[in-house]
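We were asked to recover a plausible sequence for a given structure. The inputs and outputs are reproduced exactly as logged, with field labels preserved.

PROBLEM: sequence recovery
POSITIONS: 328
GIVEN STRUCTURE:
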């Protein structure tokens, strides 16, 4: 435990430059007397800890001293930082450990490399969770380099942006704050319009992109990961929603409950053979398609229009097969 604490003391001094015994003790939740003993132990071990007495004094390390991995570039450090948000780390429950390890790594870096790595972490976010559906990678590579340069240099960006409906592109001037990659698709989060509203743009929908000679001031409180999460909430809130009550065979429930376009509000077992649920689909049409896919293992209880549409489609399918059988 003491060895871990000594390493933590070094990490704090490397990150903050100078700290008082009280500050270190509060950070590590030990007494100031313990910190004095730790500093003595570090000195005996050959680590040049400097004690400044009096007002404004504290403990520090000599300029340039680092207990660091040597030879690592800012690019190599940045690539490690992006691993924090991968689905593998999340799935294995290692998110907190990875975050702690990365903070220790950052504290051990020389100031110039640490600054470059922090800039990368502030401006690029990797979302490891998948969308509802996956498709081919769509990086928008034709303009990605220009967008990245604008983000890095805090330069305004002129672009011609094609909307989702495929309509004509519109000219926009944005303040790009950060890049996000999700399922191989790149997005830029930016302030846009006279009100400087936070918006998200897909890089591959840019028909043109060019740097403006004008720079802009990044909001100091901007957190890219938090802003991205908030944009996802807004996006999901705008999705269409079709609510229904359904009954699913118990043998098919696990598969149905994991349907990508179905949200289960609540469910209850009905005997041993069926599960009844309040479910939210995206649209009436998608509800019909999904329910038909379960055949006799599913029943629509409400609303009535869903029951009627499923019955109509089932009759049409039966008639089609009956006609094929007749021709044979």
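RECOVERED SEQUENCE:
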């Amino acid at each position: 435990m003491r060895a871990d604490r000594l390493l933590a003391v070094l990490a704090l001094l490397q990150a903050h430059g100078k700290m008082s015994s009280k500050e270190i003790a509060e950070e590590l939740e030990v007494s100031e007397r313990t910190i004095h003993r730790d500093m003595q132990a570090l000195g005996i071990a050959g680590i040049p800890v400097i004690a400044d007495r009096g007002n404004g004094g504290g403990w520090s390390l000599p300029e340039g001293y680092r207990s660091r991995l040597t030879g690592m570039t800012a690019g190599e450090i940045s690539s490690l930082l992006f691993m924090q948000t991968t689905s593998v780390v999340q799935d294995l429950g290692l998110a907190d450990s990875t975050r702690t390890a990365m903070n220790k790594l950052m504290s051990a870096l020389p100031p110039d490399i640490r600054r470059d790595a922090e800039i990368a972490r502030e401006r690029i976010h990797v979302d490891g969770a998948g969308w509802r559906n996956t498709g081919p990678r769509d990086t928008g590579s034709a303009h990605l380099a220009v967008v990245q340069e604008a983000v890095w240099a805090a330069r305004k960006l002129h672009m011609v942006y094609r909307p989702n409906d495929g309509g004509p592109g519109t000219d926009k001037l944005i303040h790009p704050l950060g890049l996000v990659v999700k399922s191989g698709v790149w997005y830029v989060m930016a302030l846009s319009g006279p009100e400087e509203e936070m918006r998200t743009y897909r890089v591959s929908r840019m028909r043109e992109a060019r740097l403006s000679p004008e720079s802009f001031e990044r909001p100091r409180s901007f957190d890219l990961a938090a802003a991205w999460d908030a944009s996802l909430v807004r996006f999901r809130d705008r999705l269409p929603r079709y609510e229904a009550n359904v009954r699913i065979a118990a043998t098919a429930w696990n598969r149905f409950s994991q349907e990508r376009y179905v949200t289960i509000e609540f469910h209850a077992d009905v005997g041993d053979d069926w599960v009844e649920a309040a479910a939210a689909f995206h649209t009436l049409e998608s509800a019909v398609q999904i329910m038909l896919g379960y055949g006799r293992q599913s029943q629509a209880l409400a609303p009535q229009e869903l029951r009627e549409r499923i019955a109509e489609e089932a009759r049409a399918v039966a008639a089609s097969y009956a006609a094929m059988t007749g021709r044979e």
